[in-house]
Amino acid sequence: MPTADPPLLESMFAKAVPYADFVALGEPQGHRSPWDQRYSQLELTDGQQEVVAGFTRKMHVLCLTGTWCGDCALQGAAMQRIAEANPDAIDLRFLLRDEDHAELIVKSQINGGFRVPVTWWLAEDFAPVFSFGDRTLSRYRSMARKALPADETAALGLAEPEAGHNPVRAVLDEALQLFERAHLLLRLSARLRQKHGD
After folding, report:
1. Are strands 128-133 and 90-96 parallel, antiparallel or unpaired?
2. How much is the CA Rg of the chain, to the nearest whole Å?
3. d(CA 42, CA 25)
4. What is the mean pLDDT of residues 105-128?
5. Nearest in space to 172 (alpha carbons), one of 44, 13, 12
6. Which sign, positive or negative, has the C-alpha torsion 174, 75, 139, 166?
7. SS (HEC) of the chain
8. ω into residue 161 within 30 of 0, thus cis?
9. What are the structural domain ranges in the chain?
10. Which of 143, 142, 136, 102 is nearest to 119 (CA)?
11. pLDDT digits over 79-111, tens only?
């Protein structure tokens, strides 16, 4: 899991921008369309909105990402839809992976490489809660089914998805689980319960 200290994360969060501003950064290079497409495909269901509306702890979410990256567009749009469902609890910002943010990039290596996206969930005081990087499990399963021999995918239990499986919405489900996990970690934190008297 990528690690970075709280002061660095807080300073980088201050430099990061909201979703619309980030997506606009990629427009001159023609990178905007995938972000808009994914966003249009990822409206939350009533049940998902209800889960997010129940979040009571404030969380800052910092996503180090690239406008050029298809997986970034998918995860970024999913996270934005979740954040919009409870802006009082979720402050989501995006930071472009470029030379201006080298200090954070160095601390976000995954499997010996500089991958995107990498996302940090932070408490209200910017204490790190956890981070997540690269593709979601459903994306890796899909890639493995295409790239690995059939006998190996069978041994891994990677059967073809059921009829009606929507790979785009599967990523939304996984993103929501990460946000819910962060909220529960924050809500059950003894430190924060003492601070808020709940």
Report:
1. unpaired
2. 17
3. 21
4. 88
5. 44
6. positive
7. CCCCCHHHHHHHHHHCECHHHHHHHCHHHCCHHHHHHHHHHCCCCHHHHHHHHCCCCCEEEEEEECCCCHHHHHHHHHHHHHHHCCCCCEEEEEEECCHHHHHHHHCCCECCECCCCEEEEECCCCCEEEEEECCCHHHHHHHHHHHCCHHHHHHCCCCCCCCCCCHHHHHHHHHHHHHHHHHHHHHCCHHHHHHHCC
8. no
9. 6-134+168-196, 136-165
10. 136
11. 999 999 999 999 999 999 886 766 777 777 788
Q: Which residues contact 31 (CB under 8 A, 6 or more apart)?
A: 67, 68
Q: What is the pLDDT of residues 124-136, one digit of tens each?
A: 999 999 999 999 9
The whole-model pTM stands at 0.93
72 is written with which tokens? 């970034």
Q: Of 66, 70, 46, 61, which is closest to residue 136 (Cα–Cα)?
A: 70
CATH no. of 6-134+168-196: 3.40.30.10
Residue 193 gets the label, from left (phi > 0), alpha (psi -120 to 50) or beta, of: alpha
Query: What would the two tokens of residue 193 be?
Result: 């319960």
Q: What is the pLDDT of residues 37-85, one digit of tens each?
A: 999 999 999 999 999 999 999 999 999 999 999 999 999 999 999 999 9
In angstroms, the CA 166 to CA 163 distance is: 9
